[in-house]
Specification:
- The protein is an alpha/beta fold and about 525 residues long.
- It contains 21 helices and 9 strands.
- It has a 9-stranded mixed beta sheet, with helices on both faces.
- Strand 4, helix 7 and strand 5 form a beta-alpha-beta unit.
- The longest helix is centred in the last third of the chain and has 27 residues.
């Protein structure tokens, strides 16, 4: 697992993660064990009759949107982004009971979030806890965390809608005077059941934006390498939505893999949060160690942004179907006989990150200004240097794939082998950074970028200055050594380097210059 993650991403967080993996090897030599528990979540459902309860259509400026989501850190941030966006009016929020959070806490947390941002009038309802077919479910500890929303202390909100999730979805779409954009950020159970209640609701759907699926990218579920969680939980529900005839835009892992949550973005949020929405997102992220340690992406946030503006991603036409059973269950599979959809296949990560921060703070997406040719030339040279660094590190992992696999094998207890491969890894990283330092020293940055340029080079120097100490620590490491000093110092140095790189990347984005400085190392 660790070896696979390290192979896919070399950036600061994953370099440190690779070093942390070395600690696991040393722990294995002591016979340490990691316990894994698994329990089954209890389903919760809420239902009512559409005929017995009223829905009052929302009014006001902005494109009408219905959000079908389940509160986790990513879903909550996506919802808050839309609630803050001046071009959007959220008319209703529905929660699939098949999502990570159980209905009762999900509804309560959502009503509390609405109270925090002053949007108490938006109706909220939950749907069935059972998928349309099958019995796939989330890990129990994931559901516990989603129920809790760690880091947030939410006020009591208003009352939930007397409607069920599917009923509310039907009412909000069919009673809207304008076509509705539907954003789905969880399993598609509610949407499938709403279509069963009233198939004609597709007439008033502008489009369905689905955060889900992995088309050409690898999946992320434990059960197979093809599926993404939202689709895997309820493949039959997903296929029913595809078959509805509604226009569909998938924002799958193919695109969200381009937008990892970075420590530098969270740091920028920490110093630039001026609204209750931005504060809530920071508190949520800051209390979620997994978010800050890497491996998390702006899954739902990107889908929400795409709903507001397609240009955040590259869209491609495709025909797909959802595999219902077998070893590929849940795959959003390219299929010539499938349903025509649009699929996001890449993302403008830095423009997206910039606008996510701006909108959460109550502003609008920032205008992209015409690029200065001198700055374009500078950033293109910097991009080439970053690409060289990225290529060098990834080439090392490819050449040493077998050794890395052995290193992170839980049964491997060869300390000398672990020490040797990690020593080589450190030396390759440092040599690549020496080249970066030399090449950036030859650049002549425009005056307004000089401070940021020199700060970046200073952070490269800071990492390089640790080489001797790191190698010495590594040489002395044994089964009982924690390497805490080594790990802490390396982590801090790479965090600062990544932040300096992202500062330059943001400056490029603000000036309408589309480059990838490989700050996160794709």
């Amino acid at each position: 697992m660790i070896g696979e993650l390290v192979r896919k991403r070399w950036h600061a967080g994953w370099v440190v993660f690779a070093m942390a993996g070395f600690l696991l090897v040393l722990s294995a030599c002591r016979g340490d064990e990691v316990a894994v528990t698994s329990t089954t979540a209890a389903p919760v459902t809420t239902t009512s009759s559409l005929a017995d309860a009223a829905y009052t259509p929302q009014s006001g400026p902005g494109t009408p949107v219905v959000v079908d989501y389940n509160p986790t850190s990513s879903d909550v941030t996506a919802l808050l982004f839309l609630l803050q966006h001046s071009g959007v009016r959220v008319d209703a929020i529905t929660i699939p009971g098949t999502g990570e959070s159980h209905c009762e806490p999900a509804v309560a947390n959502t009503l509390g979030l609405l109270a925090v941002v002053g949007k108490d009038g938006i109706p909220v309802a939950c749907g069935s806890a059972e998928p349309i077919a099958g019995d796939n479910d989330w890990p129990d500890d994931w559901r516990d965390a989603a129920d809790e929303l760690p880091g947030l202390t939410l006020p009591a909100g208003g009352e939930p809608s007397p409607l069920s999730g599917p009923e509310l979805l039907v009412a909000a779409v069919t009673q809207s005077p304008e076509p509705v954009k539907l954003l789905t950020l969880g399993p598609l159970t509610n949407v499938a059941e709403a279509l069963s209640l009233d198939p004609t609701l597709v007439i008033n759907l502008d489009a369905v934006y689905i955060m889900g699926g992995a088309v050409e990218a690898d999946g992320n579920v434990f059960a197979n390498q093809f599926a993404e969680w939202n689709i895997w939980i309820d493949p039959a529900g997903a296929q029913a939505v595809l078959d509805s005839g509604a226009p569909i835009v998938f924002v799958p892992l193919d695109a969200t893999n381009d937008v990892p949550v970075t420590i530098s973005w969270v740091d920028r949020l920490a110093t630039a949060r001026s609204t209750p929405a931005a504060n809530a997102v920071f508190d949520l992220f800051n209390a979620s160690p997994g978010v800050l340690e890497g491996g998390f992406y702006f899954w739902d946030e990107l889908a929400a942004a795409v709903l507001t503006d397609h240009s955040y991603v590259t869209l491609a036409d495709a025909t797909v179907s959802i595999v219902q059973d077998g070893p590929e269950t849940g795959w959003t599979k390219p299929d010539l006989d499938g349903v025509p959809v649009q699929v996001a296949v890449g993302a403008d990560s830095f423009r997206f990150e910039r606008d996510l921060l701006s909108v959460l703070n109550g502003g609008d997406p920032l205008e992209v200004v015409a690029a200065d040719p001198v700055m374009v030339a500078y950033f293109k040279e910097l991009e080439a240097i970053g690409g060289m660094l990225d290529t060098t590190i990834n080439a090392w992992f490819e050449e040493n794939e077998e050794a890395v696999d052995v290193l992170f094998d839980p049964e491997n207890a060869d300390i000398e082998q672990a020490r040797e491969i990690m020593r080589e890894f450190v030396e390759v990283v440092m040599e690549a950074l020496r080249q970066v330092h030399a090449l950036t020293g030859e650049l002549d940055p425009p005056a307004e970028l000089a401070d940021a340029h020199h700060a970046y080079r200073a952070m490269v120097e800071a990492v390089l200055s640790l080489e001797s100490e790191i190698l010495a620590e590594l040489e002395a490491a044994g089964p009982d050594d924690s390497l805490n000093v080594f790990e802490t110092e390396l982590s801090a140095a790479f965090d600062d380097l990544e932040t300096a790189c992202f500062d330059l990347q943001s400056m490029a984005s603000e000036r309408g210059i589309n480059v990838d400085l490989a700050c996160s190392g794709e």
